[in-house]
Amino acid sequence: MAARDHAGGGPLSAPRPLRTGTPESAGLDPDEIGRLLTEVRALPRGARPWCAGAVVLAGRGPVIAAEEAVGRAVRYSSYDPVTDTGVELPPERQVPMRADTPFDLASLTKLFTTVAAVQQLERGTLGIDARVGAYLPEFRAAAAHGITVRRLLTHTSGLRPELPLYDCPDDAARLAALRAEAPVTAPGAYVYSDLNMLLLQHVLERLTGRSLDVLVREGITRPLGMAATGFGPRPDAAATEDQRRPWAKADRGMLRGVVHDENAWALGGVAGHAGLFSTARDLAVFCRTLLCGGAHGRARILGPDFVELLFTGSGLGFGIDQPWFMGELAGRGAAGHTGFTGTSLVLDRATDTFLVLLANTVHPRRRPADNAPRATAATHLARAARM
User: How does residue 298 score in pLDDT terms, banded at 50, 70 and 90?
Assistant: First the structure.
């Protein structure tokens, strides 16, 4: 499917880089975009706000039609379990959210690991149905059960959702645990698992002789000019959690600029499932690139056929048509992902639209996920595209 430039009207031969515009110049209903922004502005308010702060960015074609920062990047010094509330910093020490505030992307990192893997598929150095054991024979449990690269990318390997690597005494013990981890369900059934991306990281690093952070930087973020995207630390990032047991899995205190995910932290901050930091603008470039068949401006990171592979069937790495966070954008092949810290993105090839909503919902502490604001924002964008 050819992406369409809604400012120019025709199929894209050379995808235009993103530019700031208006809803009207992007072919979007300004009233619906206004409703989207009104909803987001309310998210940090109230006694128990959905987040301390957020950045939302919505666009169509090469046009960023709306971009706004609300609330605080840093609001709390700690969490008080007695009152079940955050302990607010004095106003002068709170940090306002800005449009260029970096966020801990959490599981949005998986999308970059996925693209790095598909780049190797395109080069012919990795086989999608090849067995993990062919690349990593010492990962004996994966080898014995015939886990394939496709199974990792589609979360159908049978591996459990996570492994408590943060409780291992050292790197050697963590690696030994991964090597010995066997599927807990029969391959083929969908079970979302961070371990899939950790194994994929090891495959990619063995195959290329380069670490994942280098693969992401050299293959994705540098060519696309995504200078604000990379693995931590990022001292200027939005704060996440006062991470303490029993609600968390480690005792680390209030986190800002270091990865929130306990396993990614235990692995040094660079992991296939979590660890990247980025901004809404950079993620908009990522979305635009995929909507344009793998190119942005003069840079190309994937060929169109391999972008199509990402979105075929149930998708590789990306979730496809998931109404629980995509709202009314779901239904015709919309792709996206969410992150535990409060991050999400959706790109819809049917309408050539994209939505990035970054929030620090775990500041000052994690709570059961509420995806309604994500779905509502996506629904407003879907309705805006129908004008």
Answer: very high
